[in-house]
Amino acid sequence: MPDAPRQGESAEIIHLPGSKGPARGYTWEPFKAGHFKAKKHGAYSDRIVTPLAATVANDLMDELPYLQDPTYREMVLEFARTVVRAELIEQWLDENGEIRDDGTVTPAAIYLVRVKGHLASMASRLGLDPLSRAKLGKDTTATKVDLAQLMSALNKQNGGTA
Q: What is the rounded distance in angstroms from the CA atom of residue 61 to the CA atom of residue 79?
């Protein structure tokens, strides 16, 4: 194998079998920062997901004020990001299909199943389905009753009449 050319020397051009001769001298401009050349569905792109997720999270907190409690913040944001990911993948699958020409399932379709499972789990933890919402309401009511009983006991202990 020949040595690599030294700086300033030209390299020997080798034509591979089946090639049509020397390169024609054209080049492509390098990708610039922030390009979307490799984008497929966008579910992995924080530049796409984050702004859409902020809208979803804000709408959700407007609709369900208990989610405005700071202890819910990270979970609401993660839920919103997951909602956006699922929507982006579903949109891509609607346009491109779930099955490849060779009969195999696309990676996006497999990923969507995982995303939807994660979404259902988080929805339950946030009280967004009927059963978990009822449980959350029951726990909140129980806490309010416990606090009311505690306040009443403290008031009696201090000689109050309430």
A: 12
